[in-house]
Amino acid sequence: MIIGSFAILAILPAIAEESSPDMSDPTAVYTSVGAGYGTKGHNLKLGIQLPDSGEGSAHMISLESKEGGDTYRGRYFKLNTTTGFASSIDANYNRLTGVAQVSAGGLQTIPITDQFTIYPSLYLGTMIANERNDAGDKVGVDFPAITATALLYTKYQFTENVWLNVNPSFTSSVYGSKTDVFDLEASLGYQFTPVLNMRLFHNNNMSVGTYNDDTYESVTRLEFNYAL
After folding, report:
1. Under 8 Å between Cβ of 46 and 72
2. pLDDT in tens, 119-135
3. Which pTM value belongs to this model?
4. Could you count the other beta carbons within 10 Å of the beta carbon of residue 168?
5. Number of structural domains in the chain
């Protein structure tokens, strides 16, 4: 019995490593919790992997509270495990402005080398806001703009435990209020164990063509994620 117990303990790390997700992969589907803190307050996140449909796909929902509770995000994500194509529906709400944005689109996994992978994506969405009369009273729902977003996720794997993501994106309105916004997100990740990592994020966000101090935003945050 003692020998058997030691044998089980010896293989447990290998089992955990084999069953754990690749947490550096932005298309990985798994259940997780995360928390972080940055220059705009705390972030909390929850990802829930949904039951396998048996069709060569995996899907999940994720919920986030960001910037100290000023913004919220909900997302449904579905990955084709054979082709590497993923589709998603994304909803964001800013409590301070009262504006929500809902978008849908997809991305494709394209390995360039063993260490470098790109994930080009395209999304179409709409902004949703309260319609108000001249007195400032809510009188209905307004859709101020329809937007398109082109985004390129990239991942470079330095070592088994260290990776870098650089993710530029550009959003422009195709109808309604003019919106041209460029965002550059970079994150450096470190995998402590097969199910625990740390990521340092930095975002530079600016309105294109109308740059000034009011339209520029720089955010840094440190985040920990644990796969369940």
Report:
1. no
2. 999 999 999 988 777 66
3. 0.84
4. 15
5. 1
